[in-house]
């Protein structure tokens, strides 16, 4: 089989640079894809800041802007409560999930030292292929006393088997000599785990933490199943109940006798508030993706 250098010398068509026409076509296609992806986001953000007169007129891109929609939302009501609920679920759930997943991964990464680790690993892997279903899960939440509780959105998904495998593989890639040296110096298991393993695992913890945070922030279906009290709804349920249904959002009013903002600006503002937090966090963790996901997902 000819080498890459021989193919280049022979003038293989797939190795030759593309013609200017092909480059122009690629540039146009990429530009269209970018515009298609950015247009909805730009439209939603622009309409959330649209002045009431232009929002009622139905302009595509407003030229006059106002903060009335955000003032009405943060004045109190359902949306503010939903944001607070989602923030609590995301922060507490992510911290608890990272703690539980990393501890389980560390125990399963040391199958020789922990009795029964392989059996536990098989049981965890089985959850990736078999699910109990909606009704058994609902009955379990009911019998545990978690129905209509915020904890019903955190405890059932506390450990993700996929995230555990990624962290476990990362732990297995840590130098064993470093662990043995710490053990010789008298360090116990908890000290090794907290002061050596976790500081060295910041990339994979940052990536899995983002995975957990996105999952908790976007909690929707389980909230519909387990929560009956509207005051406990996360922002995604509020988004569905009031924005997609086109119903006036309760409590979204301006102080005094000022007329409420148009419904379309309130809806777009809620969409922005439900989307922006994850978009803001992602760039700070992006640099960990290559070292965290690839190192944790590939072993050997």
Automatic annotation (TrEMBL):
It holds the Pfam family BPD_transp_1. GO terms for biological process: transmembrane transport. InterPro entries: MetI-like, MetI-like_sf. Its main location: membrane. SUPFAM superfamilies: MetI-like. It is a multi-pass membrane protein. It is found in: Cell membrane. GO terms for cellular component: plasma membrane. It comes from the Bacteria. Keywords: Cell membrane, Membrane, Transmembrane, Transmembrane helix, Transport. Residues 83-285 form the ABC transmembrane type-1 domain. The chain crosses the membrane at residues 27-51, 87-108, 120-141, 153-171, 192-217, 264-285. The keyword Iron does not apply. PANTHER family: ABC TRANSPORTER PERMEASE PROTEIN MG189-RELATED-RELATED, POLYGALACTURONAN_RHAMNOGALACTURONAN TRANSPORT SYSTEM PERMEASE PROTEIN YTCP. Belongs to the binding-protein-dependent transport system permease family. This is ABC transporter permease subunit.
């Amino acid at each position: 089989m000819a080498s890459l250098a021989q193919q280049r010398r022979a003038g293989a068509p797939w190795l030759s640079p593309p013609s200017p026409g092909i480059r122009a076509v690629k540039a146009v296609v990429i530009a269209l894809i970018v515009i298609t992806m950015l247009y909805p986001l730009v439209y939603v953000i622009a309409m959330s800041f649209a002045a009431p007169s232009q929002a009622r007129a139905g302009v595509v891109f407003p030229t006059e802007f106002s903060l009335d929609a955000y003032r009405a939302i943060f004045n109190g009501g359902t949306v503010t409560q939903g944001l607070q609920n989602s923030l609590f679920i995301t922060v507490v759930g992510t911290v608890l999930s990272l703690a539980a997943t990393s501890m389980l991964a560390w125990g399963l990464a040391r199958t020789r030292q922990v009795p029964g680790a392989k059996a536990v690993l098989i049981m965890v892997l089985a959850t990736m292929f078999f699910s109990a279903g909606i009704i058994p899960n609902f009955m379990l939440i009911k019998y545990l006393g978690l129905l209509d509780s915020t904890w019903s959105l955190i405890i059932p998904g506390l450990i993700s088997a996929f995230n555990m495998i990624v962290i476990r593989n990362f732990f297995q890639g840590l130098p064993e000599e470093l662990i043995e040296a710490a053990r010789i110096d008298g360090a116990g298991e908890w000290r090794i785990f907290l002061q050596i393993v976790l500081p060295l695992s910041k990339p994979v913890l940052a990536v899995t933490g983002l995975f957990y945070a996105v999952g908790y922030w976007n909690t929707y279906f389980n909230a519909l199943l387990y929560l009956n009290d509207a005051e406990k709804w996360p922002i995604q349920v509020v988004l569905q109940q009031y924005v997609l249904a086109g119903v006036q959002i309760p409590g979204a009013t301006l102080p005094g006798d000022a007329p409420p903002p148009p419904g379309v600006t309130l809806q777009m503002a809620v969409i922005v508030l439900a989307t922006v937090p994850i978009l803001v966090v992602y760039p700070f963790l992006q640099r960990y993706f290559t070292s965290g996901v690839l190192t944790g997902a590939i072993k050997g």
